[in-house]
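Let us work through a complete example step by step.
Step 1: write down the sequence.
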Amino acid sequence: MIEVLGLTLLRPLWLLALPATLALALFAARRERRSEWASLIDQQLAPHLRALGFMRAAGRDRRIPCLAAAAGIASVALAGPATTSPTAPALRSLDTLVIAVDLSKSMTEGGALETVQAATVRVLQTAGRPVALVLYAGDAYLASAPSDDPHLLETVVAAFGADTMPDTGSRPDRALTLAADILAGAAGRRRDVVLVSDGGGVGPEALHEAEALARSGAVVSVIYVPPTERPYGMPAPDPDALAALARAGGGTMVAAPSAQGLADRLAASATATVPHEIAALMFEDHGRAILVLALLPALLLFRRVR
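Step 2: predict the structure and record it as tokens.
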């Protein structure tokens, strides 16, 4: 199927018949103009034969353009020009997205918690596909299984706080391992992981997990949210480590203000698969109506020559 001038062509290969029809029509017209009958018939007799309809003047055989027009219209009709049916069943994308949010002390007590929430909500609202939510600090936890309801997940995001996680530390490798387990059972064509973090705890283990996800066909992207202040004893943010993680996962790293751009790209990459058995229910095929128009030039073939 292809889109042409606002119409969906269900069988676009039939359009290849158009140039073939044109070529045959030109060949037939050229051959008809070079007919040898005119040279074989007495020139004084020829006008009388034309008057009686037994002979046509060269280049005046209307059967060729009529047949060419009918064949051209039939080719367009067989290509299946269609529009979306108003009664088409609603489809949803099965591509799964996992958002892993770092809720370690540097994120919850560094003054950037609201930025973390805002970036997460932007991705949730724009995803257009099932989203699973993973929270991590010293360990990773599944906050929500893949859900199509962003409002449900927004209530979880709104509850983020300094006391959300039961442990300390930052282990993004465990969050990526949990994301891999979630995506292993996903049914969609595309699988994505978005890590929201300041780069704390990113080491060889996390890079290894990102590479494993990439080998499995998933894409790991990163939203970098640096703290606005550093509580005593907290490690410094590490954007370089996050950038390396995104490269290992085949994705990109964006800063928090650019989270909407990443969300838009993720939404554009989602696919809504149309099952073959219901594809005919999705469109109204106008080919049959157009095929009737092919009868108009065909009817001219039955016109009596005078």
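Step 3: interpret the result. The two ends are 47 Å apart (CA to CA).
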